[in-house]
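Per reviewer request, we include the raw input and output of the structure prediction for the construct analysed in the revised manuscript.
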Amino acid sequence: AADIGLKLNLSDQFNINASILDLGQIRWRKNPERWISNKSITLTGVDLSGFLDEQNLDFQALADTLENFLEITSTEEKYNTTLPTRIFLGMQYDVNSALTIGMLYAHEYNINQVFPTLGAQVTAHIGEVLHIGTTYSTKHDAFTNLGLHFVLQLGPVQLYGLTDNLFDMIQFEPYSNTHVRAGINLQFKFDQ
């Protein structure tokens, strides 16, 4: 699999960017084991009381029961898994030294399905060190996706964090979905 991307500065204040992530597939070659079940069931709940032993769950007994019930067959054949390729197109405009606005279009391909996303972001720059902001996007036919992000620039070390779907985080509903990401980048600049 491969990731590629580019950023083009059209002026001191305006840039466009594009990237393709997870382009390719995983080849399962070394000792692959593929489980297949052609049985169709409707699951209305699971009673685990028969698998509890002194407050511990017997995972092996549960796995054996599920394997027998679902009539699972196992093969050791090599196979490939196509990755969910994502395409991003964006633009960013520095309104002034303290404020940046941007837009992003994302397209995810996953097993004969396409998931488009459109988003906008506003970032405030507090000096050269701290950048904080918010994002809004539409994704999977949901129009209430609000997120937050920050970047802390400490010389060549950049710490970042971001989240999306904050409304799901505070609703505590079943099937809610919030993502939180954090990381560290090392940046190197070379004079030409």
